[in-house]
Amino acid sequence: MALLDLFAASSVPVVKVLLVTALGSYLAVDRVNILGDDARKHLNNITFFVFNPALVYSNLASTLTFESMVELWFMPFNILITFIFGSALGWVVIQFTRPPSHLHGLVIGCCAAGNLGNLLLIIIPAVCRESGSPFGDSDVCVKYGMAYASLSMAIGAIYLWSYVYNIIRVSSSRSSREVEIIDSPTHKSSSSGKSLTDPLLSETEDHEKGLGHGFESKPHQVSVSDNIKQRLGSVFSKINLKKILAPSTTGAFVGFVVGLVPQIRGLLIGDEAPFHVLQDIALLIGDGAIPAVTLVMGGNLLRGLRGSGIEKSVIFGVVGVRYLALPLLGIAVVKGAIRLGLVHDNPLYEFVLLLQFAIPPAMNIGTITQLFGAGEMECSVIMLWCYSLASVALTIWSTFFLWLVSYTDEG
């Protein structure tokens, strides 16, 4: 297969995403102001609570079966690997670049979570329909490609809204508490001299407590098991199931149930299903998610053009992780899994697994930062650079991955 054909098959999907993103940026400029700050906020909320759950559910329920899940069991682990190694590399970026504390969750999230849903749903069908595609019949390719992309989107939604969502939440709340402590009267009085936090006063109070209660003057010995129980109890007490079970995650669970339980599937899926109108409505609503999220991303990228206080080293670190370190790691992981027999011989499936390591950060990270009101400008700048460079990086990696799976298939 000619390299030029592979390059064309890889570049067309990326160009489509960039064109819709450019439209979103145009609609957000001041003289047009169709997609201003308020409009993007409302559209974000609609996407978060309505479009994304419907998209995840409808694609998952209609394309997944128990048989296909048995064949695709490695994909959840593959995505988990991207999150684990992306988080570790993001932590390394933080250690070298030293961004403000409220951006730690954003940096780790951008390194860990790729655009596993919307972008794959655009790229895979477009690659399948290109004349130079190595995946055979376009209709069959699209059918199975959408199943792979749907599963990727569902798993990505679960990881994103249960992991990245809470990392950014904790990071933003910790930063808010630090600001409150600095601005509090108690902290200001402590800096002036005698205060509740004065070390000498604290020692005096502790000494007096020890004189009053002799048995408390001895250090309290806490066993390792008690310490672990206390820490686990503290963690679980802070877990908010409503925040972990975000709408997209709930939609993924419902899609799994409908797709994998034959009795329920027979009621909803197919033209002869008695309640197929519910599935049709979900498909109709879910179709709005991709253009809505992409347009909002374009509007947010416009804010990135105006700049922010984020260091260039942070941007370079995130770009390096997403477009250099993770793709190279992905080749080793996927090829190792194939060699060990963990992944069946399927060029399209291998291509999707490889592509999961080379995509830009998830667009919903921008939605999360807007929900918490922390790091919005910085997120816009990171997304601007990542998606601007995606036109080159993603095209190059897609071309190489297509050649890799074609070479393996011919071999």
Which features characterize this protein?
globular, Na+/H+ antiporter like fold, 411 residues
Itemize the secondary structure elements and their pairings.
Elements: H1 3-28, H2 37-63, H3 66-71, H4 74-97, H5 104-112, H6 118-129, H7 138-183, H8 185-192, H9 199-212, H10 224-238, H11 241-244, H12 247-260, H13 262-268, H14 276-286, H15 289-305, H16 312-339, H17 347-355, H18 364-372, H19 376-410
Describe the structure.
This protein has 411 residues and is mostly helical. It has one domain (3-176, 240-410): Up-down Bundle (Na+/H+ antiporter like fold). It contains 19 helices and no strands. The chain has helices at residues 3-28, 37-63, 66-71, 74-97, 104-112, 118-129, 138-183, 185-192, 199-212, 224-238, 241-244, 247-260, 262-268, 276-286, 289-305, 312-339, 347-355, 364-372, 376-410. The model is unreliable at 179-184 and 190-220 (pLDDT under 50).
